[in-house]
Design brief:
The complex is a heterodimer of chains A (492) and B (231).
Chain A: H1 2-30, H2 36-54, H3 56-74, H4 86-135, H5 139-154, E1 157-161, H6 178-187, E2 192-194, E3 197-203, E4 208-215, H7 224-288, H8 294-325, E5 334-337, H9 338-352, E6 357-361, E7 368-371, H10 373-389, E8 396-404, E9 407-413, H11 421-424, H12 447-457, E10 461-465, E11 475-481
Parallel strand pairs in A: 6-8
Antiparallel strand pairs in A: 1-4, 2-3, 3-4, 5-7, 8-9, 9-11, 10-11
Helix pairs in contact in A: 1-2, 1-3, 2-3, 2-4, 3-4, 4-5, 4-7, 7-8, 8-12, 9-10, 10-12
Chain B: E1 5-9, H1 13-25, E2 29-33, H2 36-46, E3 50-54, H3 62-70, E4 77-82, H4 86-95, E5 99-103, H5 107-125, E6 130-133, E7 136-139, E8 144-147, E9 150-152, H6 156-167, E10 172-174, H7 175-183, H8 190-204, E11 214-217, E12 221-224
Parallel strand pairs in B: 1-2, 1-3, 3-4, 4-5
Antiparallel strand pairs in B: 6-7, 7-8, 8-9, 10-12, 11-12
The chains are: A alpha+beta (492), B alpha/beta (231).
Chain lengths: 492, 231
């Protein structure tokens, strides 16, 4: 920097001397035409020009040179410097004065210009930081926007720390700053400064949001006004981010609460129907049993058993739903024989829906998948139950199980009403039930929601195709990851 | 035992399957409708004596079914509702339903409601002049109210309230209907109603703090018991 300024001086000096040389030449050429007094004005002009252009130092050198030049070239006796007459002193005095005035004026102008330039830079930095912080969605982004815009524009190293001293930009830790940060938080001052490092505590409405640490690489002092403005802006940005995150939390909590109450009301409704049926059937058997023919009694008893099963199924679905909501961490993973489990599920479903025709198409041997056993079993039962509920008695339910790349693909298709296109996106939602042809939906409204939750938590996928064949039927396709390294084992 | 034709409207096959045998055993003819459209169609075709209506229907609001039936006839309608649908229940009663049972209901309670409704259906056939049940008798022509043979002095408001309850004896009467009967407008403060019901109980009940004749249906209205029939 100093070297730079020094070089500039030599260039400036060269131009200043050049101008004086031209001036001297001009003065000599008009010597005799104009009087001495007028010619001195030419020198005064040159000194002032030099002062204005190059500052005080060069102005003085110019004044000295002009004085020598004027004395030697213009005033009599020529080529000699004499100060014998009071007039001889007037010229150097005037030259020096004009050098002083012009040099000071130009210096002040330059200082002003530099200040304006610096202010511009600071404004740019503030603007850029403000823009970046406005867009920030979390404290990390606020910190990054602040650091980037400030160092770009001003060269100041500005970093944001939480009240414990941890850097908020997610970068390196700054253990050496921790004492300073803690002192700043405790100080209650607008800023503190230690060894060229400045700390600005950022007070929020309830607690200290963080601390802004700033320093110049060369240890030069910082512009206090600029830094305080930056600190205030950062405070606002942090406060906004905090409020936004608190709002998002509140929204999430409200949604969870809504879901819970929807679940409760739906569950209580779903529990009531089978309970009413059981209660009514049992009470009529108790009070009027002797009037019923054996067939009617049997039907009522069958109803009681079926509705108890339904209650049981609903309860286990609810339990598994809450397990799934606990996140994938709550699920166990074990190697499961997919074919055997599917066949078992079909056998159970056959007892519930004896009139349906089940056709299984599967490779010899076993297909092993990695999943949660209870949930896999429940999902198979749910999908098979849906296939039977939404298709006429006596129709076929086809189950196809095969390996497909590194996935096990299980396709369960029925010959039922199918799912209208408009409802297909919603069937995987909780408590959504497609209407059956004969009225009441019988499912829990949880089956496919659980299936999707389970399959996705297991790293698989679920999709549906409807209508499946001849404008009817639904096909649910479940893909689960195969056991990676283990080759197909012949357990069947 | 009064037998009649019952239209059972419920989209839940299990409940229909459980209810139908007992209703048939009691001598009722039972028609089943699984949605509102079928209910209205069956009502027109079958001319049932009582309608048992589940409010949660797949194709339309249960209240619309009530409105459609009321446009044709004043056949008693008993609403079957889930307990948490308090507002729905009151709206259904105001729409013209005669009574309600909560799900899961007690069979005996439902059957008692059906009997009440069938009796009312018979009463509706001929113009009512007197009410006579248990200790209470009312002569609607002379406005004479007797309790165990002794006549009671009732204020006009008390009489109007008792008459309204007696006209739907055994069935729930909503606060709105009672307010309309006593004060001429159904928007009146239910607090008045509570006060007057208290005064009626003072005059009618043996033990007013344990009413046996005028029962409160919390949140809905009041019910005048007939012939010691269990509610």
């Amino acid at each position: 920097m100093l070297k730079h300024r020094f070089q500039m001086d030599w260039t400036r000096l060269f131009w200043a001397v050049a101008l004086l040389a031209v001036t001297s030449a001009l003065a000599v050429s008009v010597d005799g035409v104009l009087s001495e007094g007028y010619i001195s004005l030419i020198f005064v002009t040159a000194v002032m020009v030099n002062g204005a252009l190059h500052g005080l130092g060069i102005a003085f050198i110019s004044a000295l040179l002009a004085d020598v030049g004027f004395d030697m070239l213009i005033t009599e006796p020529k080529w000699v410097i004499t100060y014998s007459h009071p007039n001889d002193l007037a010229a150097p005095l005037v030259f020096t004065l004009s050098a002083l005035i012009s040099g000071l004026l130009s210096g002040r102008l330059k200082d002003e210009a530099r200040r304006v330039r610096q202010r511009n830079v600071q404004l740019e930095a503030l603007l850029e930081a403000s823009g970046g912080m406005q867009r920030a969605r979390n404290t990390h982004e606020v910190a990054t926007a602040l650091t980037a815009s400030v160092i770009d524009q001003t060269g100041i190293m500005a970093t944001l720390h939480d009240a414990a001293g941890q850097g908020l930009d997610g970068g390196d830790a700054y253990p050496q700053l921790v004492p300073l940060v803690q002192e700043a938080v405790a100080s209650n001052a607008e800023w503190i400064s230690r060894n060229g490092v400045w700390a600005f505590p950022l007070p929020g409405s309830t607690s200290t949001l963080g601390v802004l640490i700033a320093q110049r690489p060369d240890g030069a002092p910082l512009d206090q006004g600029f830094m305080l403005a930056l600190a205030r802006m950062t405070t606002l940005a942090l406060e906004r981010v905090h409020l936004a995150s608190r709002l998002a939390e509140a929204h999430a909590a409200a949604r969870a609460e809504e879901l819970k109450s929807a679940l409760l009301s739906s569950v209580s409704h779903d529990l009531r129907s089978p309970l009413t049926a059981i209660n009514t059937a049992a009470a009529s058997l108790l009070a009027y049993g002797e009037h019923f023919d054996p067939e009617t009694s049997r039907e009522l008893l069958t109803g009681i058993v079926e509705e108890s099963d339904r209650l049981n199924h609903l309860t286990s679905n609810l339990l598994q739903m809450s397990r799934l909501q606990g996140g994938p961490g709550g699920l166990s993973r074990s190697v499961l024989p997919a074919l055997e489990m599917t066949r078992n599920a079909i056998e159970r479903q056959k007892r519930i829906a004896p009139s349906h025709q089940f056709h299984v198409e599967a490779p010899d041997g076993e297909v092993s998948v990695l999943a949660d056993a209870t949930l896999f079993d429940l999902v198979l039962a749910n999908v098979l139950q849906n296939a039977c509920l939404y298709s006429p008695p006596g129709s076929a339910v086809n189950i196809r199980c095969e390996e497909e790349g590194d996935m096990c693909r299980i396709a369960i298709s029925d010959e039922g009403v199918g799912i209208p296109l408009s409802e297909q996106a919603r069937v995987f939602e909780r408590f959504y039930r497609v209407r059956r042809e004969d009225g009441a939906p019988r499912g829990t409204g949880l089956g496919l929601a659980i299936a999707r939750g389970f399959v996705e938590a297991s790293g698989g996928a679920i999709e549906l195709a409807s209508p499946w064949r001849d404008g009817r039927g639904t096909c649910i396709i479940i893909r689960l990851p195969l056991v990676p390294s283990e080759p197909r084992s012949d357990t069947a | 035992m009064t037998s009649g034709h019952i239209l059972l409207v419920d989209d839940e096959p299990a409940i229909v399957a459980a209810l139908r045998p007992v209703l048939k055993t009691l001598g009722h003819a039972v028609t089943v409708a699984i949605d509102g459209t079928a209910a209205i169609a069956n009502f027109t075709l079958g001319d049932p004596d009582v309608v048992l209506l589940d409010l949660g229907l797949p194709d339309m609001d249960g209240k619309d079914v009530i409105r459609a039936i009321r446009a044709k006839a004043n056949t008693p309608i008993i609403v079957i509702s889930a307990r948490h649908q308090e507002a729905e229940k009151i709206a259904a009663l105001d729409e013209g339903a005669d009574d309600y049972v909560d799900k899961p209901f007690v069979l005996g309670e439902l059957l008692a409601r059906v009997r009440s409704a069938l009796r009312r259906r018979e009463v509706l056939a001929k113009p009512i002049e007197t009410f006579d049940s248990g200790p209470l008798s009312i002569d609607f022509a002379t406005r004479v109210v007797k309790l165990r043979g002794e006549s009671l002095r009732l204020s006009p408001k008390e009489y109007n309230l008792l008459r309204t309850l007696a006209e739907s004896a055994g069935q729930v009467v909503t606060q709105r209907r009672l307010l309309a009967a006593g004060w001429g407008r159904s928007e009146a403060d239910p607090q008045y109603l509570r006060v007057y019901m208290g005064m009626l109980r003072q005059k009618l009940e043996e033990n007013p703090s344990e009413p046996k004749l005028i029962l409160t249906e919390p949140g809905v209205g009041y019910r005048l018991m007939v012939g010691g029939e269990p509610a």
